Every structure is written in structure tokens, then in C-alpha cells.
Amino acid sequence: MSAAHRLQLVQLVAVADAGLVRVAWSAAWSCYLVTVTRPRLGVVAEHVAADRARALDLADQALAELAELAGMPV
Q: What is the 3-state secondary structure (H, E, C) of the chain?
């Protein structure tokens, strides 16, 4: 696989046992990919953002939702 097809990890955050939010840059698609996974459920949401600020905003929203599911104060 060429370097152009790989994803570059930008941010990875795990929230207790509630899930994981990953932000990655795709050079092949020239966009950021935000992926939300939950234990035993796998990928529950995927978002595409054109810029880093929007991708990190989407990740923050997903983290807040996961924290709420885990019973953590937001």
C-alpha cells in the first residue's frame, strides 16, 4: 500500500469503557475522517470533514456523547 493511501492519525481518545474517537487525515481523499467506535458494537459513526478544526469539533461532540453514555459529567 502506498503512502498516499494510508491514514495519518491526528487524535485518538478513549472514554472509559464507553468507546473510542479517532481523527485521521486521509491524503488520498484530502479530508479528515472522524470515527466513533463502541465496545461490542464496532463503528457506530463516521464523519468526513474538509478541515482540521471541523474534524476536531466533531470529535469533541462525539466525546461528549460517549462521556454522557458512560455517566461522566460533561
A: CCHHHCEEEEEEEEECCCEEEEEEEECCCCEEEEEEEECCCEEEEEEEECCHHHHHHHHHHHHHHHHHHCCCCC
Joined grid coordinates for residue 48:
468526513
State pTM to two decimals: 0.84
pLDDT at 6 over 90: no
CA atoms within 13 A on the CB side of 14: 3
What distances in angstroms separate CA 33 from CA 5, 9, 22, 69, 71, one per listed residue? 13, 10, 8, 22, 26
Residue 61 neighbours by CB distance under 10 Å: 15
Per-residue pLDDT tens over the stretch 19-38: 999 999 999 999 999 999 99
